[in-house]
UniProtKB/TrEMBL annotation:
Record bears the keyword Transferase: no
PANTHER family given in the database record: TRANSCRIPTIONAL REGULATORY PROTEIN NARL-RELATED, TWO-COMPONENT RESPONSE REGULATOR
UniProt keyword annotations, A-Z: DNA-binding, Phosphoprotein, Transcription, Transcription regulation
Record-linked Pfam families: GerE, Response_reg
The keyword Transmembrane is assigned to this record: no
List of residues that carry 4-aspartylphosphate: 55
Residues in Response regulatory domain copies: 4-122
Highest taxon above the source species: Bacteria
InterPro entries named in the record: CheY-like_superfamily, NreC/VraR/RcsB-like_REC, Sig_transdc_resp-reg_C-effctor, Sig_transdc_resp-reg_receiver, Tscrpt_reg_LuxR_C, WalR-like
Domain HTH luxR-type: 150-215
Protein name in UniProt: LuxR C-terminal-related transcriptional regulator
Amino acid sequence: MPIKVLIADGHALARLGLLTLLSSAPGLRAVGEAADSDGARALAAAHSPDVILMDISLPHLGGIATTQHIVEAAPARPPRVIVTASEVSDEEIQSALRVGAAGILLKDTSPQKTIASISAVATGDMAFSPSVMERLIDAYTYRATATETAGSTLAMLTMRETEVLRHVAKGRSNSAIARELKISEATVKTHLNRAMTKLGITSRAQAVALGYECGLVVPSQPHAVA
């Protein structure tokens, strides 16, 4: 059976180019083209494509939010989504992966690489443009180093100091932390000041940033806006 591919791109010329490419590729079949997020969601529900080529700048919701909607709405096996973009930020890369994208290709990717990527993700692999892959590797290396450093950093703190730092990183006030931990506000200040001294930081903003870097607080996944 041919791999069913849905094209979702706000630019007519881009859709035409991809349709032409798919028509010449053995084993691939275009099942529809959408110019916006509403069309992409409707066609995905109607045709159950194996792979979706999803423009990150898709009109209305954008490609990342549309991907999340489609993946979450799939009744059984969700389609594999390749996000396409002229350029992409590190934040967009992470967001795309969090909502279930199986690949990220820049729009200067060659036709041969695009076809190979579609075939790869359809069988369960992932596909990235080389520059995107390099940034993923750099980010992973940085996180691994940061996590190792964070472990030794937090080891300097007492359990109560760590607990206070976690609440500060969540954006809570000293009075709120005091109520939560059933201690006085003065005690909260004491633990926070001691923690900041040990960590070599001088502001509450730095404490918040460090809390995230050390993994004391994990950012929630973004929610799509319908």
